[in-house]
Design brief:
Elements lengths: L15 H7 L3 E8 L7 H14 L4 E5 L19 E5 L2 E5 L15 H10 L5 E6 L1 H8 L7 E5 L2 H18 L3 E7 L7 H16 L2 E8 L11 H11 L7 E4 L11
Parallel strand pairs: 1-5, 1-6, 2-4, 2-5, 6-7, 7-8
Antiparallel strand pairs: 1-9, 3-4
């Protein structure tokens, strides 16, 4: 056997070719924690969609939050009935209550994510907007990195911390990001991010890895803020362990602070 065999492009096992085939065919799933004390949650979802669309990605918002519209009765048989096309690059699914229809014996509802991926094979990013308890069931078997939402009011920040605590303790999701919705002149933004990061480390053993500041008064059609653009690019980077990546269907495979 030649010495340069190990450096060749010859497959090392039978699955090597399949891994290469499906390496590009994966949807990035990002858990977005719904915050009922936040005034501009819908606006922040719009900003996230704009940031991904700018990168050329097709993004779908799977809205499982309590504020999502009621789902169609036909969704029991066809999830596609819940999907609305908002633009050529953005889709929306009203999915309140749907994940529990896919719960398994271990309490996981991850099967719902696969079912959604199967009916939307062209989606690049799936923003799963849900309560922290729903996200625990959806992502309990993943290496997801939840995105916390908050504004600069105490009740909103308190909820974000409580959500992080639940996700850490119940689903073992230890790394989080934070999107802060506040005016550019808010004096509290940096202190809030620092307090959440400190509490995550000191009391939960968790990490607030990144935080973003977005102005809710900015026009959704404008270019995303530099920090949001950077974050979206990172999510889309294949080598970045962000969220959870799920194989798309193919011909061979139909994944209290103040």
């Amino acid at each position: 056997m030649h010495d340069d065999y190990a450096d060749s492009n010859y497959p090392h096992d039978q699955a090597h070719g399949l891994r290469q085939m499906f390496a590009h065919a994966r949807v990035r799933m990002v858990p977005v924690v719904a915050n009922p004390h936040m005034a501009f949650g819908g606006v922040m979802l719009e900003r996230l969609c704009t940031a991904f669309a700018e990168q050329g990605a097709h993004v779908m918002v799977v809205d499982c939050s309590d504020r999502a519209p009621a789902t169609s009765e036909l969704s029991v048989m066809d999830l596609g009935e819940c999907i609305e096309t908002l633009s050529p690059q953005v889709s929306y699914m009203a999915a309140r209550g749907l994940p529990l229809r896919y719960v398994d014996s271990a309490g996981s509802t991850a099967g719902f994510l696969q079912a959604v991926s199967d009916v939307m094979p062209h989606v690049d990013v799936m923003l799963v907007h849900a309560s922290e308890s729903d996200l625990c069931r959806l992502f309990m078997r993943s290496e997801a990195r939840p995105l916390l939402l908050a504004d600069d009011r105490p009740a909103s920040v308190t909820h974000a911390y409580a959500a992080m605590k639940l996700l850490t303790q119940r689903a073992n999701l230890m790394v989080h990001d934070l999107l802060l919705c506040a005016a550019p002149t808010s004096p509290r933004v940096e202190r809030i991010a620092a307090q959440l990061a400190s509490c995550a480390d000191s009391f939960l053993g968790a990490v607030l890895r990144d935080w973003l500041h977005v102005d809710p008064a900015s026009d959704a059609r404008e270019a995303p803020a530099p920090a949001l653009r950077r974050w979206a690019r990172e999510v889309l980077t294949p080598s970045t362990p962000y969220g959870t990546a799920m194989t798309r269907p193919t011909q061979m495979n139909q994944h209290v602070l103040n």
